[in-house]
Amino acid sequence: MADIPAEVDVAIVGAGPAGLAAATELCRLRAGRVLVVEREAEAGGVPRFCGHSPYGMREFGRPMLGPGYARALVARAEAAGAQIATGVTVTALRDGPRLTVTSDAGTGEVAARLVLLTTGIRETTRAGRMIGGTKPGGVLTTGGLQGLVYGAGLRPFRRPVILGTELVAFSAILTCRHAGIRPAAMVEPGARITARHPAGLLPRLLGLPLHLGTDLAAIEGRERVEAVVLRSGGAERRLEADGVIVTGRFRPEATLSREGGLTYDPATGGPEVDEYGRTSDPAIFAAGNLLRPVETAGWCWGEGRAVAGAMAVALAGALPPPAVRRVARTGAIAWVVPQRIAGGCSPALDTLQMRAARAASGRLSLSVDGHEAAARALRALPERRMLLPLPAGTGSPEVRLEAAP
Amino acid sequence: MTSESAVPRGPFDVAIVGGGVVGCALARRFALAGASVVLMEKAVDILDGASKGNSAILHTGFDAPPGSLEAACIAEGYRDYDEIHARLGLPLIRSGALVVAWTDAQEAALPSLMEKARANGVSDVAPLTRAETLALEPHLAPTLRASFRVPREGLIDPWSAPLAYLTQAMAHGAEVLRGCAVTGGARAGDLWRLDTTLGEVSARLVINAAGLYGDLLDEALIGRRDFTIRPRKGQFVVYDKPAAALAGHILLPVPTAITKGIVVCRTAWGNLLVGPTAEEQEDRANAPLDHATLDALRAKGEEILPALAEHDVTAVYAGLRPATEEKDYRIAVHEAGSYVTVGGIRSTGLSAALGIASHVLRLAQEAGHGWQAPNEVAWPRMRNISIAAPRDHESAGNGGIVCHCEQVTRREIEAALSAPLPARSLSGLKRRTRVTMGRCQGFHCSGPLARMTAGAFDLPMAGNG
Ligand SMILES: Cc1cc2nc3c(=O)[nH]c(=O)nc-3n(C[C@H](O)[C@H](O)[C@H](O)COP(=O)(O)OP(=O)(O)OC[C@H]3O[C@@H](n4cnc5c(N)ncnc54)[C@H](O)[C@@H]3O)c2cc1C
Ligand SMILES: Cc1cc2nc3c(=O)[nH]c(=O)nc-3n(C[C@H](O)[C@H](O)[C@H](O)COP(=O)(O)OP(=O)(O)OC[C@H]3O[C@@H](n4cnc5c(N)ncnc54)[C@H](O)[C@@H]3O)c2cc1C
Known about the structure:
The structure holds 2 protein chains of 2 kinds. Chain A is an alpha/beta fold. Chain A is built from 8 helices and 29 strands. Chain A has helices at residues 17-28, 57-60, 66-80, 142-151, 167-179, 202-206, 255-259, 297-315; strands at 7-13, 34-38, 83-86, 89-94, 98-103, 106-117, 121-123, 132-133, 139-141, 160-163, 185-188, 210-212, 215-220, 227-232, 235-240, 243-246, 250-252, 264-265, 270-271, 284-286, 325-326, 328-331, 333-337, 340-341, 351-356, 360-368, 371-380, 386-389, 397-403. In chain A, the strands form 8 sheets. In chain A, strands 1, 2, 3, 4, 5, 6 and 20 form a 7-stranded mixed sheet that branches. In chain A, strands 9-16-10-11-12 form a 5-stranded parallel sheet. Chain A is globular, with a radius of gyration of 22 Å. Chain A starts with 6 loop residues before the first strand and ends with a strand. Helix content of chain B is 28%, strand content 23%. The radius of gyration of chain B is 22 Å and the shape is globular. Chain B has 3 domains: 1-93 and 153-229 and 324-382, FAD/NAD(P)-binding domain; 94-152 and 230-322, D-Amino Acid Oxidase, subunit A, domain 2 (D-Amino Acid Oxidase, Chain A, domain 2); 392-463, no CATH class. The two termini of chain B are 31 Å apart. The longest helix of chain B is centred in the last third of the chain and has 18 residues, at 349-366. The interface between A and B is large, with 56 and 54 residues. The structure holds flavin-adenine dinucleotide (2 copies). One flavin-adenine dinucleotide (FAD) binds next to helix 1, strand 2, strand 4, helix 4 and helix 5 of chain A.
C-alpha cells in the first residue's frame, strides 16, 4: 500500500460532502496530516451520480449539478492539502485508533490520532422492506438506478413502478426522464406524499399515476419483473410493470462503526454522538448522513466542517471531557441528534435536530430537569427537520412532541 | 472440457440428470471412479432448484430417523465433507448447535432426542441447564428452559461446495451441459438414448437427480413413478453482519414431525439467518415470498434473540424442498440396473450429498457397472468467499473491491466469469462470489458490475434480483 501513509493526524472515512468539507477545514486549521479514504474509484460521494439536482448553494453560492459539485468539493479539499486515497476500503476500526484498509494492493493499516467517520447512507432495499413475491431482475434502489443510468449508461427497464414518495423518489423520476424511462405509477403506503412542496407536484405535472395509502404487496416475474401486486384497503390488484424502483427509507451506512464497537443508536441507525460529533470512543468522530437519515448535501457539508473544527480543538487537547448526559425523547419524536451533551462551549452541532415519527400538528418542547427551556407549535412531517436549541447547564434534557388534540 | 453449445455425443458411461447438489456430488463420485460422465441441467446454470436456497447447515444427522437411508447418507456425507473440504478450499465453520427447549413439553422431549442422537452415532451430545445455555449464548431470551449441545453441527457454503464437486468431476473429464433439459428417452440394447433440448445424449447408466422434478422425469423415462413430489417452501430472513455476533451456535428448536422448525444461525459469510418455514405448495418452479410470513419470521427471531430487534434485515429468500409422501430418501435401481432414481432428497441433501453419491456408486457396482479409477486425483481449489479464511481482497493484485457490502473483488468476479464452469447469469455470479448479496443489494455496485459483465451473461444485467 505504497501511496497510503501508515500514520496521519486525522483519517477520514468516506469522501462525500461531509468528509470532504471536514478535510478542507482541518487543513485550513493546520491540523496536521489529513487523509481521506474513499472506497469508490472516484471521490465525491452520492452527488457524483445525481445528474440533476440543485447542489452547492450554501457551499459555492450557486446552483450546481451533482457531478460538478462533487468535483468542486474534491478540488477544494486537495487544494487545501488533504490527501484523498480512492479505491481504498476501510474494513475495520481498531483501538488506537487504527484503520484496517484494503485495496488492489491488499490489506494494510493506518494509525491516526483522530478518526472521522463520514460513510453516508443507503436506501432500504426490497429485502429490507420484506416485499413479497418472486425475485426477478429489475428491482433497484434509486442509488442502483443512478449507478446504471449515469454510471454505466444503461436503461434497465422502461415501465417501472416507483415505491415511496420521499424527496429521493423524485430524484428517481428525474433519472428516469433522463434515460427515457416512463414510470407506470408511483406507490406510497402513507396517506400523503412524504416529500415537501414543490417536489410533490411532479407526478401530477408528468401525468404519473400516484397511488396513496397503497402497499406494494408482491413482485411477479421469473427472469424480469412482469407485474406488481398493489394492496389498498384490503383489495389487491395487479399492475403490469417491468421494474420496481424501491426508494428512500434511508439507513446510515453504520456497519463499520457498529462492528467497531461504537455505541449504536437504533433510532437513527447510526453511532451515538455528542455535540462535538464525538462517538462513544473519544478519538472517533462522525458527521454527515451517517448520523441520521437523511439530510441534504449542504447540511452534511456544514456538519462535516463544524465537526472538523471540534476535532482541531480535540487535537490540541482542549475539548471538554465526554459526558453521559443523554437527551431523552417522548411523544412522536423518531430520533434526536446529538444523543449526548458534554456541556462545553463552541459546540459543532449547535442545535438539537429531530424528526417526527409521523405527521402531527402539535407542540415541540425542550425541558431540562422538568423545566421547560424552549417550545413552539409546529406542523411536523416525517421528512421535515425540527430544531431546538442545545440545552444549557448540567441538568437532564428531554425533548417532547405532543400532538394537538 | 465443456462444449455446452455443441451437439452432445456419447455414449457416456453415466448420464446424470440434474445439476443440484446431489447431481454435482454424483458427477464427482462417478468421475473419480473412472466413469465417463455427462451432467445435464435444464437451467442456464447449476443449483437452480432445491439447492438454490437452504439453511447451509452441515448436519451430523443427530435427529434423522435411526436406521434410515437418510441417516446413513448424512453420516457418510458429513465424514466425507470433513475429509475433503480443506483440499477443495471449502469452509467448515465448526459452530456447534444447541437444541433449545422453550416449554415444559419441549424440555421433556430433550432426553429422547439425545437418545436418538446417540442411536445415530452422534454420541458427543451434552445436556445443558438454562444457566449453562445462557453462559454459552448470552443473547438468547432468558425464558428458555434447557438445551443440549451438538458439537459437530457446522456451517458451510451451500454453493461453493457443489461447484467444487462438479469442478473436480470436470477435471476428471466430466462434461457439463447447461440449458439442457432431458425431455424423454428410451433404452435400446444396453444403451439409453436421451432426448434433450441440446440433441441426443446416449449413456449406459442414467441417474435421475432431478430434485423437484424427479417424479416427472421417472415418468418420462421409465414410464412410472414410485413417489410424488410435494414441494415444501421454506422462507428466510437474513440480517446484516453485526447481528452475527448475537449467536455463536446454530440455535435449533425441538423438531416436530413435519419440520426441523425455525433455526437461527450464522452463515458462512458472516450474516445471521432466521428460517425456514415449511409450507406445502403445488408450484415446483417458483418460491414466492410473503410479506406477512417474513414479518412473522422476524418476530420469531426476536423471540429467540431479543437484541435482533435492533438489527437490519438485508436479504430475504425462499427455497423449495423436494419432499414426497414419505420421509426417507427415495433411491431405487430400475431397468435391469441401467437407471437409478435419486429422489425425495428433502431437507438434508446438502449434508448428505457426498454420502448419497457413494451409496449410488455402490448400487451401480452391485448392478454390474465398473470402471478403472484414475491413478491420481485432481483437487481444484475454490476461491474462499467465507469468513473461515482470508478473503481475496486481503492479498495484492485483487483489482480493488467492486461489491463493498460483501467485499467482492474485481479479480474474484473475473475468475468466476472465466472458471471451468463460468457464471452465465447474475444469479450464477452471485452464488459464486456473493456480489450484490449484501446490505445495499446493488445500491453501490450495480453500475460497475453491469460494465464488467457486459457480454458475459445470457440475460444481460438489468439490476439486482
Ligand atoms: C439518490 C439520491 C439523491 C439525492 N439528491 C439530493 C439532492 O438533490 N440535493 C441534496 O442536497 N441532497 C441529495 N441527496 C442527499 C445527498 O447526496 C447526501 O446528503 C450527501 O451525499 C451526504 O453526504 P455524506 O458525505 O454524508 O455521504 P455520502 O455522499 O453518502 O458519502 C459517503 C462516502 O463514504 C464512502 N464510504 C462508505 N463506507 C466506506 C468505507 N468503509 N471505506 C471507505 N469509504 C467508504 C462511500 O463510498 C461514499 O463515497 C441525495 C441522495 C441520494 C441517495
Ligand atoms: C428451506 C430449505 C432448507 C434446507 N436446509 C438444509 C440444510 O441446512 N442442510 C442440508 O443438508 N440440506 C438442507 N436442505 C435440503 C437441500 O437443499 C436439498 O436436499 C438439496 O438441495 C436437494 O438437491 P437435489 O440435487 O436433489 O435437487 P435440486 O437442487 O432441485 O436439483 C435438481 C436439478 O435438476 C434440474 N432438472 C430437473 N428436471 C430436469 C430435466 N428434465 N432435465 C435437466 N435438468 C433437470 C433442476 O433444474 C435442478 O437444478 C434445505 C432445503 C430447503 C428447501
